[in-house]
Amino acid sequence: ALPVATQDGIRVYLDDVRKVDLWKNVSSTVKKTVNITIPSGRHTLRIDHVNWTGTANVKFDYTPRTSATVDTVKPLAPTGTAVTYDQATGKAKVTWSRNKEMDLAGYRLYRRLKGTEDYRRVSGGDPVTGTSFTETLAPTGAAYYYEVRAVDKAGNESAGGTDVPVTTVDRTAPLTPVVTATDAPVLGVELDWQDDTWDVDYDVYRAASASGPFEKLGVSHGSSRTDETAPYGETSYYKVVARDAAGNTAAARVVSLARPLFVPVVDSTGTNAEQTGITLGWTASKAAPTQYRAYRWDPSDPNAVPVRVTCETYRTGNEADYYPQYGCTDYSAEASTAYAYHVTSVDGAGRESAPSATVHAGLRDTIAPPTVTGLTHTATEYGTVLEWDESPAPDIAAYIVRRASDGRDQATHEWLATLPAGTTRFTDVQVPDDENWIYFVDAVDKRNNSLYTTSGNPLADVANVSVNEFELTPPQSPPQTSPWSLSAAADESGHAALSWNCHGTGCAATGFHVYRWDRAAGEYVRLTDVPLAADVHGHTDLTTPTATTSHYVISAVAADGSESFSGLAAVVVPPSGA
Question: How many angstroms separate the CA atoms of 392 and 373, rounded?
Answer without folding.
Answer: 10
